[in-house]
Amino acid sequence: MSKHLWKPIPKILLLLTAVIGAACTDTPEEAAGQGTAQAINAISDVSSVAFLIEETQLENVLFLRTTPFNIFDALEYDFNFDYASGVTGDQERLASITQTLDVNTAYTFVLHGTAAAPRVTVLQQPERAFDVAGTILEIWFSHFSPTAPAVDFYLGPEGFDPATVAPLATAITETTASAIVEIEAQSGEFVVTETGDPTAVLFRSEPTGVAAGETLLVTLLDASKEVLGDYALSVGGTVSTGLLIDDRALPEAQFSNASFSSGPVDIYLTSDLQNPLATNVGPGQITAPVVLPEADDGANVSLSVTPAGDAGVILVERELTIPDAQNSIVFFTGRQADDNTLLLALPSNQRVVFDAARLGIFNGVLDT
To answer: If you average pLDDT over residues 88-98, what whole number do you get?
Structure first.
């Protein structure tokens, strides 16, 4: 802490200061307290945006993600969303909104719509002080999926039937949010159904936990090309953030033959050499996405490659990590004549760049 020496100020200086102060009306506004702000990127054709207060960047927000909260003086600000142009690489303004932050209030700025017609909707909630030894939390729900109907939100034990419990929120329509409800900390699954029909399940999360001592916003969004399934839940709280994918969504893979000396090939599950996943994949070709069965251990899938039409000759067999509800590309590469072939699975980068094309490069040469 800096220290200042005090000494008497001459009367003429005091008088001059008073005159100047009286003539100046553009004095900085003083805040009565603080508020908080976070952002959600709900625009599917903008894979990443910068969230700014005035011209200061706070967070980089991927599609489907919710940022942590940032604390500011309770004043009026311009909140902006910028994106990196795929053409120039420069940051360009996508959307802006002016908002006054109230004391002890949390604001969520949801960027939604499309890149051509972006919108910002502001959700707000009172901030709450929780007992550090308590077992409760607050939870509320919002809906920013352009394809989903009005929905009900549930939370229950793993595998529960939503028809046997009451929803935590009901009849939530697009661009709206529910009231805040208080629940006990617990582990379980989130389920989203069409309003009034608990058998019409739109989404069931993987098992997750909700912890005491925070206010949690759970937002329904359309899934992306990287996160499979129809919908996803973006979770943002005063303490934690995360993304929940549909536990029922199976992984997908595209198969590419990058072994130009091997000729066309077939790809199988090692456990089932009777039913190929892809057939007659020639050198330089890539297949459409193929749905894979869920692995027993949740991620590892054993694949075998054979010459086209000859399942009795295994060119290569390998166990690959292909995460559930995600799209991967499986490359077959190497030289069959040298008995030096390889299967390699890579995440499929299908994030949308709405104003440019995306180019991916794979080096399949084994001896470089």
So the answer is: 90
CA distance 77 to 101: 8
Give residue 288's Cα distance to chain centre: 25
Apex 351 CA angle, 349 and 357, nearest 5: 95
Neighbour count for residue 317 (Cβ, 10 Å): 13
Question: Residue 15: which residues within 8 A CB-CB, separation 6 or more?
Answer: none
> How many whole angstroms separate alpha carbon 146 and alpha carbon 231?
10
Predicted pLDDT of residue 105: 96
Please state, in angstroms and as integers, the Cα–Cα distance from residue 204 to each residue in 162, 166, 177, 229, following that order: 10, 16, 19, 10
Cα–Cα distances in angstroms (integers) from residue 334 to residues 118, 153, 241, 273, 340, in the given order: 46, 50, 42, 22, 6
Angle at the Cα of 331 (from 326 to 335), degrees rounded to 5?
Answer: 165
Per this entry, what is the length of the chain?
Answer: 368
d(CA 355, CA 45): 9
Compute and round to an integer the Cα radius of gyration of the chain: 27
Q: How many CA atoms, within 13 angstroms, populate the side-chain half-sphere of residue 47?
A: 16
Q: How far apart are CA 59 and CA 43, in angstroms?
A: 16
344, 347, 350, 356: CA torsion to nearest 10? -70
Q: 164 phi and psi, to 5 degrees?
A: -100, 0
* DSSP assignment string, 309-322: T-TTS-SEEEEEE-
Residue pLDDT, tens place only, 32-88: 789 999 999 999 888 899 999 999 999 999 999 999 999 999 999 999 999 988 777
Determine contact, residues 201/210, Cβ cutoff 8 Å. no
The rounded percent of the chain whose pLDDT value lies above 90 is 62
Q: Which segments of the chain does DSSP mark as H helices, in order?
A: 11-23
